[in-house]
Amino acid sequence: MTPQESLYESYEKIRGSTYEDILDTIFNKSPRDFEHLVVQLLERMGYGGKVKDAGKVTQASNDGGIDGIIKEDVLGLGRIHIQAKRYHKDNTVGREEIQKFVGALAVAQSNKGVFITTSSYSKGAIEYANSLNGNTTLVLIDGLQLAKYIYDYSLGMQTEQVIEIKKMDSDFWDRMQDSQETLK
């Protein structure tokens, strides 16, 4: 393995370990804090644009199956509704829970939803979400993807070290005339 390949492999191991740390930390926080976290993440990802206070976490109980809302425009005409489930890694979100959320979207008269979990989705849940007709757009984010987004968008993260690797710029060096002399 080249030194560069070793470095990349180490980098991927560090990222993977950090993903696990992110999820473990989320498991130690309250479900309510998880709802706030996912709203913050979507805002960090650019949803809500320049709308002041675009993201909102709904009330803790009797929320109608909606945990958060992101206003996409100043007038609030476009909205993204969020469902957040902080489940153990071994748990799986099934089709029934996705169907309930799609029902909640219909009641909220919304056609955009994001379902985020710390666990994973069953095959039936994924197939159901993919089979929705054009009226409703539903994005499923599992625990690994959630951790990657938190890492990539630096939510609650600090840059520990930046390693800069350089290579020679062949265009720069090719503009110089090669020497005809031999070195002594």
From TrEMBL:
What are the coiled-coil residue ranges? none
By its UniProt entry, which Pfam families does this protein fall under? Mrr_cat
What would be an example GO MF term here?
A: DNA binding
SUPFAM superfamilies attached to this UniProt entry: Restriction endonuclease-like
- Gene3D superfamilies annotated for this entry? 3.40.1350.10
UniProt domain Restriction endonuclease type IV Mrr: residue ranges: 30-149
Biological process, per Gene Ontology: DNA restriction-modification system
Could you tell me which PANTHER family the record lists for this protein?
A: MRR RESTRICTION SYSTEM PROTEIN, TYPE IV METHYL-DIRECTED RESTRICTION ENZYME ECOKMRR
Q: What is this protein called?
A: Restriction endonuclease type IV Mrr domain-containing protein
Q: Please spell out the taxonomic lineage of the organism that makes this protein.
A: Bacteria, Deltaproteobacteria, SAR324 cluster
